[in-house]
Amino acid sequence: MEEDMKAQAQVWKHIYGFVESFTLKCAIELGIADILYEHGQPMTLSELASSIPLPSVSQDGLYRVLRYLVHMKLFDLQVDSDGLKKYRLTPASKLLVKNQEKNLASFVLLQLYEIDTWNHLSAAVEGTVTPWEKCHGGVDYIEYFKKDSVANQLLSDAMTSHTSMVTDALVKGCKKAHILDGVGSLIDVGGCTGVAARAIAKWFPSIKCAVFDLPHVVANAPECPEVTRIGGDMFVSIPKTDVVFMKSVLHDWGDEDCVKILKKCKEAISEKGGKAVIVDIVMDVESSPNEFTGARLGMEMDMLVAVGGKERSEKEWHKLFKEAGYSGYKITPIVAIESIIEVFP
């Protein structure tokens, strides 16, 4: 009986797994975390209802959404000294406040924007086209976003959001492991709006930093005196530098393309003391599952569906580095789903 109950519960959980994602999206669209953050203290249901910027708000509908968000442990429901039930932020929902530098709100919205693609997951097993291409009439992921300015802004905001989550851990990891000691110049390849480059420039002011991406991408990067913007194509050439830095770039590509990119990086790296610094997921960086295991596996599936890329184990990374002609590498785990990988020519 107990075994049957657990089996049923497991399947029911997965049947309604989508509810969590869409309820999370709803919370972001309604700005629930933003409202609570701006208010500065817990709020009752009626207070929240009156603060949501909609022509009309059903308190019953809002209550049911909030009940599920509390179940997800994204928000907390407490009873104050007057017996009033009030909702408050948790450490998790603070990561949904849009005006905070460190937030995942835009990344959530991008994932749900792409949701139709998952209906074509079996195309990944067939292997002739990606699920994204199957869903969008043969148009690949990069071309799709390049042609749609609204979607491209969503993608850019999501990448900025994602990078904001790792910058603190990245900086601390680099300082602790002395990864950027003695470095004179660094180019953030595929750096989108330059979030990582700006963080590095701030905490390592002696390093001359630049962000390098496709011209239409870097055109949207905010101006920053400490970070030069360079438009180009990493498959053609990368400007000379001491360190080529790449965050969440190689996971977008298959092995053959990764080797091509890594070879271009090697050509750009200074002969004396130069290296590539890669911030990407290492699937087996810990010997046993931990809090980030599910996120890493989820990102791996995202790569399979959207771009035909992949997250890699240490063995798979080693194979790529060897094929690209590098002499060695060192992995430094950080408090993020990614790790820092130093790769030496």
TrEMBL record:
Key words, A-Z: Methyltransferase, S-adenosyl-L-methionine, Transferase
Active site annotation, chain numbering: H251 (proton acceptor)
Entry keyword annotation includes S-adenosyl-L-methionine: yes
Signal peptide: none
Pfam families xref list: Dimerisation, Methyltransf_2
InterPro entries listed in its UniProt record: COMT-like, COMT_C, COMT_dimerisation, SAM-dependent_MTases_sf, WH-like_DNA-bd_sf, WH_DNA-bd_sf
Alphabetized GO MF terms: O-methyltransferase activity; protein dimerization activity; S-adenosylmethionine-dependent methyltransferase activity
A Gene Ontology BP annotation from the UniProt entry: methylation
Domain O-methyltransferase dimerisation residue range list: 12-98
Domain O-methyltransferase C-terminal: from-to ranges: 118-327
Protein's recorded name: (RS)-norcoclaurine 6-O-methyltransferase-like
